[in-house]
Amino acid sequence: MNRRDFFRKSVQAGLLTGTAITFPGIYGNYFAKSSRTLSSAYDLVAIKGGEPETMFDEAIKMFGGMKTFIKKNQKICLKPNIGWDVTPERGGNTNPKLVKRVIEHCYEAGAKDVYVFDHTCDDWKRAYANSGIEKAVKDAGGKMVPADTENYYQDVKINSGKVLTQAKIHEVLLDSDVFINIPILKSHSSTRITVSMKNLMGIVWDRRYWHSNDLHQCIADCSTYRKPDLNIVDAYFVMKRNGPRGVSVNDVVTMKSQLISTDMVTADAASAKLFGVEPDEIPYIKIADAMGVGKKDLSSLNIKRIIL
After folding, report:
1. CB 233 within 8 A of CB 258
2. How far, CA to CA in Å, does 141 sit from each of 64, 114, 126, 136, 177?
3. What angle do CA 55, 250, 116 make, to 5 degrees?
4. Backbone angles phi, psi at 178, to 5 degrees
5. Angle between helices 283-290 and 264-275 (to 10 degrees)
6. Which of 2, 13, 3 is nearest to 174 (CA)?
7. Which domain holds residue 239?
8. What is the chain's pLDDT, residue by residue, as a tens digit (308 residues)?
9. List of E strands, 123-229
């Protein structure tokens, strides 16, 4: 059995189908600045003021729509953050409304299949269900895939890695034509914030190695392997403290925002600014920029800002 046949059989066997804080100044300082002369091509779109699906509808237009990224009959891998057994308003996982709308756009663009998974921290069945993402995926016609056992992962070499030089990566991603990263912006006890690049910890099997061998360098190293075709940062409910799981809704501020870029480093740099910290305060952003993964200097980029 070749790897593609192995992937197809194992995925088919495992598919799930049915199954108060205020921070004045953040919005004004980040969204109010005018970018340099805009063209039809943007490095980053920052949008705020609407529901998740409405913001995505408007933001993706700035990139020419989802057909810019997806061709007919392609297989798409979506990687939200679904790590925790918490409800959407807790801000621990990507907003299910956003996940659903992205899947709908994928199919409208001609996608054959849209697969969704995460290597969760809490029990995967409860996290998939209670995050609201399992239902959102089913309702949109997508396919939830388990990631709870090692046999779903394949060995790969991280050729540009300095510390992380090999990893086991989920076969759904390896077999997909298009990779769309949909992290949530939130606090994290180990890295200050977690966004696009750190969300890739959910595509690998052995995360313990990262935590014991220079976590920030490993995050940057993994980001060199397969860069997402699109990064969609959910900043609707933003956990400002006690991350990554949080304690209660009191840890969360409602920002009603999204940041979208083809560049993970750019997306994370902008997310840091929105969160209220400088990109250079987050070591993995600095390291990834130095390694050439992407660009953290927002002043040099073409940014479209939209307020609904």
Report:
1. yes
2. 23, 8, 20, 9, 18
3. 45
4. -130, 135
5. 150
6. 3
7. 3-18+20-307
8. 444 444 445 444 445 543 322 223 333 334 433 333 333 489 999 999 999 999 999 999 999 999 999 999 999 999 999 999 999 999 999 999 999 999 999 999 999 999 999 999 999 999 999 999 999 999 999 999 999 999 999 999 999 999 999 999 999 999 999 999 999 999 999 999 999 999 999 999 999 999 999 999 999 999 999 999 999 999 999 999 999 999 999 999 999 999 999 999 999 999 999 999 999 999 999 999 999 999 999 999 999 999 99
9. 143-144, 153-157, 166-170, 178-182, 184-188, 192-194
- The SS3 of residue 80 is strand
Q: What is the pTM of this model?
A: 0.89
Angle between helices 96-108 and 133-140 (to 10 degrees): 20
| Residues contacting residue 218 through CB under 8 Å, at least 6 positions apart | 161, 163, 164, 209, 210
Can you give the pLDDT at residue 279?
A: 98
Amino acid at 32: A
Length of the chain: 308
3-state secondary structure of 144: strand
Phi, psi of 195 (to 5 degrees): -145, -130
**Cα dihedral 30→33→35→41 (10° resolution):** 40
Q: Is 178 left (phi over 0), alpha (psi -120 to 50) or beta?
A: beta
User: Which CATH number is 59's domain given?
Assistant: 3.40.50.11440
Number of domains observed in the structure of the chain: 1
> CA Rg, the chain, in Å?
18
CA dist., res. 62 & res. 50, Å (int): 16
What the block records as the tokens of 69 is 């990224």
Q: How far is the C-alpha of 92 from the C-alpha of 107, rounded, in Å?
A: 27
